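Predict structure. Chain length: 124.
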Amino acid sequence: MKIDYHLSKITELESTLSKLDTETDYATIIELLMLISAHYINATMHKLNTLHLKRDIKHNRLAGILRREKRMGEKSEEIAKIVTRFEELRPGLVYGRKTNGKYAQEAMELFQKLKKICKRELDV
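Prediction complete.
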């Protein structure tokens, strides 16, 4: 997928995210954060030429690939940890009984770190 397409999807999804409330929309927030993060990571790897433009990596494979292949250089492990934490939070918020907005807030804070790293590489 072209970098510009990833960036347009990020803009669209972040617009939706901005309308949500962590106390009531926690399940939707964690799903959106996972999706937006996948777009950021894939776009960044395309920019770094560590992922071919015709290929993207699904969210459930990102952490493992980043750890093994270091496709985001020195930031690979940090990004992998954030993605892993999202994957840990998702089942409880989306399918389980976690109804506390503090988990969505934690995810938002992690997302801001991921976004900052990716934007630095993407020059956006």
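Summary: The chain has a mean pLDDT of 93.
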